[in-house]
What we know:
The structure holds three protein chains of three kinds.
Chain A: E1 5-6, H1 21-29, H2 33-48, H3 64-67, H4 90-97, E2 104-109, E3 112-118, H5 120-123, E4 128-131, H6 132-138, H7 140-146, H8 158-166, E5 169-175, E6 185-191, E7 197-206, E8 211-220, E9 227-237, E10 242-250, E11 255-265, E12 270-277, E13 282-291, E14 297-306, E15 311-320, E16 326-335, E17 340-349, E18 356-366, E19 372-381, E20 386-395, H9 399-407, H10 412-428, H11 434-450
Parallel strand pairs in A: 2-6, 5-7, 6-8, 7-9, 8-10, 9-11, 10-12, 11-13, 12-14, 13-15, 14-16, 15-17, 16-18, 17-19, 18-20
Antiparallel strand pairs in A: 2-3, 4-5
Helix pairs in contact in A: 1-2, 2-8, 9-10, 10-11
Chain B: H1 3-10, E1 27-28, H2 35-44, H3 49-64, H4 77-83, E2 88-89, H5 103-111, H6 114-121, E3 124-129, E4 132-138, H7 140-143, E5 148-151, H8 152-158, H9 160-166, H10 177-185, E6 190-194, E7 204-209, E8 216-217, E9 220-225, E10 230-238, E11 246-248, E12 251-256, E13 261-268, E14 274-284, E15 289-296, E16 301-304, E17 307-310, E18 316-325, E19 330-339, E20 345-354, E21 359-368, E22 376-385, E23 391-400, E24 406-415, H11 418-426, H12 431-447, H13 456-467
Parallel strand pairs in B: 3-7, 6-9, 7-10, 8-11, 9-12, 10-13, 11-14, 12-14, 13-15, 14-16, 14-17, 15-18, 16-19, 17-19, 18-20, 19-21, 20-22, 21-23, 22-24
Antiparallel strand pairs in B: 1-2, 3-4, 5-6
Helix pairs in contact in B: 1-12, 2-3, 3-10, 8-9, 11-12
Chain C: E1 4-9, E2 18-22, E3 27-33, E4 36-41, E5 55-57, E6 60-62, E7 69-71, E8 77-79, E9 88-89, E10 91-94, E11 97-101
Antiparallel strand pairs in C: 1-11, 2-3, 3-4, 4-9, 5-6, 6-7, 7-8, 10-11
Amino acid sequence: MVEVVADRVAPEQKKSGALDRGVVERLAGDDPEWLATRRMQALRIYEATPMPSTQLEEWRYTDLSRKLCLDKLHSPVAEALPDDPQAWPERLRSTMAEDHDAVGHLVLVDGSVVHTNIGAHLSSRGVVLTSLRRAATEHPTLLEKYLATQAIPPEDGKLQALNAMLWTDGVLLYVPPGVRLEHPVRVTRWYSETGAAFFSRTLIVADSASKLAYVDEALSDDFDQETLTSQAVEVFASDGAHVQYVSAQRIGRGAFCHAAQRILLGRDATLDMLNVSLGASTTRVDLNARLLGSGADSNLLGLYFGDGDQHFDHNTSQDHIAPAARSDLLYKGALDDSSRAVFRGVIRVAEGAQQTDAYQTNRNLILSDNARADALPKLEIHADDVKCSHGATVGQLDEESLFYLMSRGLTRAQAERLVVVGFLGMVLQRLPLGGVVEKVTRVIEEKLRLGAHA
Amino acid sequence: MPKNEVIERLDLDRYKYDFRTEDMPVFRTEPGLSEDVVRAISRYKEEPDWMLEFRLKAYGLYMKKPMPEWGADLSQLGDVLDQIYYYVRPQDRMKHSWQDVPDNIKDTFQKLGIPEAEQKVLAGVGAQYESEMVYHSLKKEWESKGVIFDSIEDGLKKHPELFRDHFATVVPPADNKFAALNSAVWSGGSFVYIPKGVHLETPLQAYFRVNQERMGQFERTLIIADEGSRAHYIEGCTAPVYSTESFHSGVIEIVVAKDARFRYTTIQNWSRNMYNLVTQRALVRDGATMEWLDGNLGSKATMKYPSCYLVGEGAHGSILSIAYASNGQHQDTGGKVVHAAPRTTSTIVSKSISRGTGRASYRGLCKVYEGSTASRSNVECDALLINETARTDTYPYIEIGERSANVGHEATVSKIGEEQLFYLMSRGMSEDEAMAMIVRGFIEPIAKELPLEYAVELNRLIELEMEGSVG
Amino acid sequence: MPEWVRVASVGDCPPGTLVGVDTMDERIVLANVDGDIYALLDRCSHQDYPLSDGELEGTRIECLYHGAAFDVCTGRAVQLPAIRPVKAFPVEVRGGEVYVQV
């Protein structure tokens, strides 16, 4: 055995382009004045807010001091790719090739929008799909009203403030009253620059009685260096609107993925939402659905599958502010190797929110001796005429199902794979989006083949 | 009849233990807490040096630890803690016969029905008044089999080695702020030892009474159930209603040895000006079973999570918790099970009722360490809300590090169903009868586990609090 | 591959004291028991709080936060609420410097 002697402290790594005031000022320099002011305000909030520690209940199981070292990250420096698929990475192109039935496409590479396309019949009716950076000058009224104000303001937390001061680009999707998109809008994100911190925002405004489906896929190769992707997703579903939102994250190992998502639902608005977390070393999702109008209905679905030393932390909340609204959450995950999942979900029923129906379920499969699952499903109920329940389970593969499949000629590994796909796939049955369901299923199968159960 | 009126008539809120006894303690410390108070308690009890050192260290920890910021609202507690008496000695020495207990104190316990129950159905009785056990007695047949049922102070004096081997091993002073406080100023409580293989056929009961205004009661109980033994311990708690707040903070430590079976029942019915912050924990070894039955009806604010540390193979833990939160009450209760050995099993069942401005919160932990193979745990919480100002919360923590574990948690919240009421009334019941029936049905799974046939006092309490006086 | 890492000077950790030190990967607590230095992972097996905030009494290290205690020589848990051991690291003192094998 060779003895190696190293010094005790890791050398301070401070690259030029670290995430400091200079970067914020540079970004603000390109902003219209109202936006520059907000950026600087976010910076002040960021500086005044301590980094969340594990002493905070919401961060108890994810130690940022060990998992996210902001000092080591720099803001992206790579040149934006041209709007030409031939110049894009093969994996990005092949992923997009699978997306048939879309009414619009948008592509981000390393945090910048490089391609946008929306059907002419929709843009003529006022539908907007565009880069958020362009929208800052082209749709200032919309952005001033909705961007980082009512949904995810910088006051929400340290990481939310960081995003609000450092975002470089993102997506704006606006659907006018009564307009119904017949197919999804597809957004694909590709990351390649290592050691960088990417900040983007998504703003979706579904005006009254409109209908839209939005599918957002993020992917990359594995990173050697720690890399951060931070997303703030703000969705406004006005009265009677129907929004379907799907996000699938398959970013490479080495990445820390943070997504803050908040959906505000008006009267009789409907939300179907699915978060699929498969990639990254650490994934943290803060999801909040606020039911602000009576008759609102939200279905919140989630899937995660971990292997290696992946860490998933899903932090969800269902806020019933208005009476007679319904929300139903189902998050399922499977954990292999020494991966770990935390699910923390709360249903809050405000005073006066009578006739609430709210449900929450988290189910975990532990596939290896070193995997771990923690579940914290909470209820906080301030009204009495409600139907609320939650359930959480942690268990292992059902031996009977395995035995049955093996008696039909499958190897144990094949049987296990099938049972896991079945377990996770049940979530997808609740999502009425055909093409998307197929693709997500394929992506899970792909990951299972690559994992220990191949 | 309006629903609220029906509830009033259900009489769930009447507190029948609001009577005071005029008496003069033989000694009490000055109000408030200081190192001198800690030293005085130890001096009065003529303790060995190690116990004084233990108390002083715990006092230091208590002063250092911050007030919990979760659970019940403790923002006013600081003032209460500055004003209460930490040690009140009601009589010279503990008695073993009711005849020797001073009349005024004896009257109190007679009103509570204790001596009567002792004669009929109990193996032994301990009665604590203010800070000291005033009475302790165990039936001869059990004494002759080596059962020890004594005040905690006598446990320390008469069985120093057994005591020291186990004391504070299950709940260390640093466990939480109030365990530290109790460790510094503990007084009263029971010391119980059940020898190997002895099956106690009738329960032991300890009764805790706070009589004086601005009183702090800090009982400490240590129970050792040796291999293959079986026993059941019941505690009951009441106090008169004063305009100022009182404080109760107990620490209960239980060691359940291999293949032993122990049940600990609490019927807490403190007056509604009492802060009740209690640490109860059992260490459960191979093949042993620990059962907590925890009924929380009284107090202003209770924080109490009986726990089972399942450290031996095949150990089983069970927690049945019932909470009733009425106007101004917050019951923050639940249970914890920690699985740290193979084939351990546990169940937690929690039922709560919130009415008026009451708030019932379930807070629980189910943890399964890696290596606790083939372990199972099931948690069920039901909350019933009686009107729109009531509040309920559920805060479970589920931490699973073992692949072969099976863990489930379920919680539901509902209100008294208009349809159920309507149906029952259509069958000829009055509205209050129907309401009572629904409430009874809701708590029945737990009520039926209570040893009603054993303790007359308990029986009265349940009838009064849970079923109400209907018709 | 195990690696010897210099983490402190002997003078940084006098007898009867605890010192938390950072290595590249993990934070470690050093305990000086009558001149012999022991090293444990600086994370209580109960709720992950740093043991270096606690107290050393003989070979017993007690966590400040909930009173869990461990044997510093082996990492064995000796007091509830901890049940599981804490990882112990080999220690060597060379020329007044403390090395830990991580």
